Each structure stands twice: as C-alpha cells, then as structure tokens.
C-alpha cells in the first residue's frame, strides 16, 4: 500500500533527525575523547614533574655526640621546609637511611665499605608541578638554601629543563590538536544542521509569506535543535563513559580520578552540543527568512 504524503514527510523528518543525532553523537564523542586525553596527559605530566625531587642537606655544625639536640634542630628545619608554598611533599632521610640508600645504589651489601654513617641527613623535597619550571627552580633552590639549618641543595638543572621542555612540547601539541578537532566538530555539526534546515526552506518561506513573524518561525526550530543537541550529547557521553570504563578496568586505574575535571569535561561537551546545534539552526533559518522566493531554488 503506497504511503501518503504526510507519512512520507514524517518518515523523511524522522530519518533526518536520526542522521543529525548520530552526527552530533559521533563528533561529541571524539571531542570528549580528546578532552580525556588532554586531562590525563596533564596528570601524567604533573606526575613526571613530581619525580624530579630536590635534595636539601642539613648543616652538621652541631656536636655529633649531642644527638638529641641535633634531632630537635633537624625537626624544626624539616617543619619549616614543609610550610613552604612550593613544597608538595617532604621526606626526612636520616644519616642511617642515607647510608642504606647509598648501598643500594652502589649494589653493596657488606658494611666493610662504610664503617660509619658518612652521608649527611637530608630532606627529599617534591615540588608542586607549577614550580618545576626553569624560570622558577633556581629561586626555589635559593629559598631552600636560605632556610636556617640547610647547608646545601642538590638539583639536576639540566634534567629538569629537558623534562620540563619535552612535557610542555607534548602538551602543547595535544592542546593544539584538541582545539583543531573542536573547530572541525563545530563545522561538521553546523553542516548537518544546515542540511536539515535546507530541506525545510520552502516550509519556512511559506510560513513567512502567510504572515508568521520571524520569532514565531524560529522557536520550533530552536526547541528541536535544543532537544537534538541534548540527545546527541547524552549518547556521545554515554559511549565515552563506556569506552573509558572499559579502558580503566583493563589497565587497573580508578574510573574517576579527579571529579572536578571530569565534571567540567561533561559540561563542555553538553555546551558544545547544545550551543552549536542552536546557533547553527538560528543562522541557517535566518538565512532563508531573509532570502527571496526565487533564491530558494538556487540556495
């Protein structure tokens, strides 16, 4: 039995909406995926920077026989180091621990080489990632040296600079690709919406010719775009969450590591989906509202 005109139009409209939703979902899925990559690349970068520790050695001008006074003095100095705004974590290493670490590094098990604890006590300082910067690290080292009770501070400047520059270079490229892909996503969604509106250009112009105001014509299209954007964003986020859940299970890491960053990413994906669909709908509809009837055949 042949379909009526209304049935055909409804089928075509339903097919058009499904196509737009699928396009939006796929594009937003990839946008979210790049966002996850950027978030975790930043976390990995911070983790690498935190491995570049600074070693602050205690001044040993006190009488070594007065161990209680020396220990109290070192505890006070250690407390001052932990209070510094650039310190993320500080670990106290006694002379005995320093000797054990030296043996491990040298691969020596016997005590023959070290008749006594010849290495000074120290504090292993882990800096906050933002302070592992060639422009700031020298100032941090100078501040550590200025703390009473610290004799010297060891830091591998060349390694710090190389790691910092390489990590920043990688993050810059990832950010650039993310921005580029976001622009591509906007273009793809915009084209899908424009094709959808293009198929209704005669309906838009007919409504205008019978006296409907532009705002009255725009509102149904905007509401539909809002719904399509929300559905597309929801499907894209659902697929992204499923992929991410599977991936984190495979590598044994928590599904959510930083709630705030993931919430921001979800909000960005939702905003991109809704904003682009609504904005594209307004511009595409407005174009046909301003055009002449003859132009509809050549648009």
UniProtKB/TrEMBL annotation:
InterPro entries: ABC3_permease_C, FtsX, FtsX_ECD. It is a multi-pass membrane protein. Residues 74-153 form the FtsX extracellular domain. The chain crosses the membrane at residues 20-39, 170-193, 225-247, 262-289. Keywords: Cell cycle, Cell division, Cell inner membrane, Cell membrane, Membrane, Transmembrane, Transmembrane helix. GO terms for cellular component: plasma membrane. Pfam families: FtsX, FtsX_ECD. Required for cell division and gliding motility. This is Cell division protein FtsX.
